[in-house]
Amino acid sequence: MSRNQTTTAPDCLLTLALPQALEEELLDALLALPEQVPGFTVLQAQGVGAHVALPSSMEQVTGRARRVLVQVALRQDHVSTLLQALKQHLPSPQIAYWIVPLLAFGRLGDVA
């Protein structure tokens, strides 16, 4: 992890939404970039919409696709570099992303 990222608090939250079938490949790509992504959160979710594929019978019946959300808190000036790296490694129209401002980031205790 670079000194910049340890001393400068993140100011945005990047969320990636993807099919479960792409989860391991995306997580491997993120883990290969420790300088840009010191950590992230993985959440199970369901997607609904015109561009969401429904590959299983269960998903077709419910009208919802099993999705994974990966959230990365980082500096806004690092987002475009990270997105470019991910697009090169995993160029998939099935992966959507959005970026929102992060008003605060901290820990409830001291980091060892």
Which key terms come to mind for this protein?
alpha+beta; 4 helices; single chain; 112 residues
Task: Describe the fold and architecture.
Helices cover 30% and strands 28% of the residues. The protein has four helices and four strands; from the N terminus they run H-E-H-E-H-E-H-E. The protein has helices spanning 3-7, 23-31, 57-62, 76-89; strands at residues 12-19, 41-47, 65-74, 96-101. The protein has a four-stranded antiparallel sheet. The radius of gyration is 16 Å and the shape is globular.
- Percent helix: 25-40%
Rg, please? Answer: 16 Å
The neighbouring-strand order within the major sheet is 2-3-1-4
Strand percent estimate? 25-35%
Secondary-structure-derived class: alpha+beta
Largest sheet: 4 strands, antiparallel
**Helix and strand element order:** HEHEHEHE
Mean pLDDT: 87
The low-pLDDT segments are 1-5
Q: How would you summarize this macromolecular structure in one to three sentences?
A:
The protein has 112 residues and is an alpha+beta fold.
Topology:
Elements: H1 3-7, E1 12-19, H2 23-31, E2 41-47, H3 57-62, E3 65-74, H4 76-89, E4 96-101
Antiparallel strand pairs: 1-3, 1-4, 2-3
